[in-house]
From TrEMBL:
PROSITE patterns registered for this protein in UniProt: PROKAR_LIPOPROTEIN (PS51257)
Keywords: Signal
Domain of life the protein comes from: Bacteria
Name the record gives this protein: Lipoprotein
Signal peptide residue numbers: 1-28
Length: 203
């Protein structure tokens, strides 16, 4: 092996070791939703039903974290997890409550639906995949968010809906904020679909 080739091999190994050594084993992403507050036409009382698993688990064990996705290197090897202090369902519930309140509703959030309630919004499923691919040159991130909702009125289901958002981007600088920005953006897209739909069905 000549000296030039040997030098490139050594540099390549050093870069690989540096990347492996700097690869995060966990990246915490917490979104504090800032409502768009552009929707109008809501009035009266609605009930938002979301599970309380986050509050219960946090109360019993503050060290619990929710896994939102994976961190991979450029070869596809899993190096860690994207985590959050908050469950995806609690994040969606908080965002929806803020938007519905801004739209004019009085929102009562509960853990379960009761018979005889008037207008009820039930978050039946929330799925998020917030993934990162890390290399020396850049960070690539993607966020796929799916929210399933049931709308009830006076004890009857009036609509079942599924809302989707899928975003991706890359960053060379400010890598830590990119996944959070994508999650925030996906959350905004879900609200843009769901809130006007809820207003139409309940009016």
């Amino acid at each position: 092996m000549n000296k030039v080739l040997s030098k490139f091999v050594v540099l390549g190994l050093a870069a690989a070791l540096l990347l492996t050594g700097c690869m995060p084993t966990a990246h915490k992403v917490d979104v504090l939703y800032n409502p768009l507050a552009v929707y109008r036409g809501g009035s009266g009382q609605v009930t938002l039903v979301a599970e309380a698993a986050h509050q219960e688990q946090q109360a019993s064990n503050p060290a619990i974290r929710w896994v939102l996705g994976q961190i991979k290197d450029s070869d596809g090897a899993v190096r860690g997890d994207v985590i959050s202090d908050y469950s995806p369902q609690s994040v969606i519930a908080d965002a929806m409550k803020r938007e519905l309140s801004a739209a004019g509703y009085r929102v009562d959030q509960t853990e379960s639906r009761k018979d005889g309630q008037g207008r009820v919004i039930v978050l039946t499923a929330v799925t998020v995949a917030l993934n990162e691919v890390v290399s020396l040159a850049k960070l690539e991130s993607s966020c796929n968010l799916v929210v399933k909702v049931e709308l009830w009125n006076n004890g009857q289901v009036i609509k079942r809906s599924e809302y989707h958002s899928k975003l991706s981007d890359m960053a060379i600088k400010d890598r830590d904020v990119l996944p959070q920005q994508l999650f925030q953006g996906a959350l905004g897209e879900i609200m843009q679909q769901a809130v006007p739909d809820i207003i139409r069905q309940f009016n």
